[in-house]
Amino acid sequence: MASLSCRGALLTSLLLLYPLLCAACPDVCSCSSGEVDCRDRALHFVPSGLPTNASAVLLGYNRIARLKAHTFLQQRSLLYLSLHGNVLVSIHSQALAGLWALQELDLSNNSLVVLTAETFLPLPSLTTLNVGSNQLAQLAPDVPRTLPQLQALFLHNNALRSLDTGFFENLPAVRLLTLAGNPWACSCSIWPLFLWLTHNRDKIQEENLTVCQFPELLNQFPIAALDNASFSHCQESPLHPHDYAFFLLIGPASFLGSIIICILTGCLVVACNKLSKDPYPRQRAPRPRMTLPQQ
């Protein structure tokens, strides 16, 4: 009985202490009402021991360069995560594992060059993603495909020159998109973006600041101000008149050349066969005549 009483007392104590253990706050941060504030603390890594019941974690203005695997595995109640203004260059594909409830992620003002779809697979509830002011040169269409609930995507001030044709097809729920401050190349590769802009002008912030940088003739010209005629050549054959002339000349010449080669090859084979035969065939010996014996 005494043993059972001790176990019961221990279990009761653990149950009473559980909320306090969940609410434990790292020494370098301040915690209040579910918010963990670790901003501007010269951190190089995400501090361990973050409260498991946190709803918001603020890690902005530090010196964090990498997010390791399972960094936030215990923060299953987290709704808002900010890493704004760090020096992030890489995010492990499993760094955000466990954040099933996360709705807003701020990765702006960092040094990210690449984003992979695997990184965002654990975030099915994400509605806002801010990757503005990084160094992204491309963004594969399968990145937004992993975020079916995404409503706001901030891509401003990166190194984007174009977006893949299927990129916008994977943003069915998006309501807000920022694209200004990228070196857009206004060639055929920008056509998908132009088509999307013409039908979704209300979803673009600072539409007139989303401008071409290349070619020089269109430098600082708003993409939305282009017209369909600007992309008419994108549907035409890329061959020029001199290309057709080349094929007209090289085609018959190749045909005649192949015939001549076949004839020469045939003549050579026949000549070789004749030379390989013995020019002086040996005479066969006469077959002996058989006679019947006389009786």
TrEMBL record:
From the UniProt record, list the coiled-coil ranges.
Answer: none
Extract the PROSITE patterns matched here.
LRR
Q: Name one GO biological process term.
A: potassium ion transmembrane transport
Every LRRNT domain range: 24-56
Q: Where is the LRRCT domain?
A: 182-235
Its placement in the membrane is given as: Single-pass membrane protein
Keywords carried by this UniProt record: Cell membrane, Disulfide bond, Glycoprotein, Ion channel, Ion transport, Leucine-rich repeat, Membrane, Repeat, Signal, Transmembrane, Transmembrane helix, Transport
Respond yes or no to whether keyword Transmembrane helix is given for this record.
Answer: yes
Task: Note the Pfam families from the entry.
Answer: LRR_8
Compartment list: Cell membrane
Signal sequence span is 1-24
Chief localization? membrane
A GO cellular-component term linked to this record: plasma membrane
Gene3D superfamilies the UniProt entry points to: Ribonuclease Inhibitor (3.80.10.10)
Task: Give the protein's recorded name.
Answer: Leucine-rich repeat-containing protein 26
**Regions crossing the membrane:** 244-272
